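Box 4.2: Ligand-aware structure prediction
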Amino acid sequence: MTTQERDLFSDVNVMEDSDNPTDLEKKHVPVISAPDSVSAGEPFKVTVEVGKLAEHPDEPDHFINFITLYAGHVYLARLDLVPRRTKPVMQVWVSLDKDLGPLRAFEYCNIHGTWEGRKEISVG
Ligand SMILES: [Fe+2]
């Protein structure tokens, strides 16, 4: 089943084939920029960008409503957005005491539902 064929609101959507992403996936999957490895307790910067691979619409009837960031299942941050006046890019300084799993970013598009992007990170 392709992304276009499934109900986008029935689950969290992900990029199914990173070697061959669809236009819908390029516009929605959050892209996380962060170091591959960090020291425990040392702050590092995380950037989450929606539309990095292909620009997402930014209009009142179709826009990115919010971005959230987790380390594994541990909540870290949230950014709420409005159309036209804000861009779906979140930058936040994070400090992790231990390895909790990959960084996971979620974004919510009012037309296309929730999308997840991940980045592996090791905490030493
Ligand atoms: Fe969308």
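In the box above, the bound molecule is fe (ii) ion. The two ends are 39 Å apart (CA to CA).
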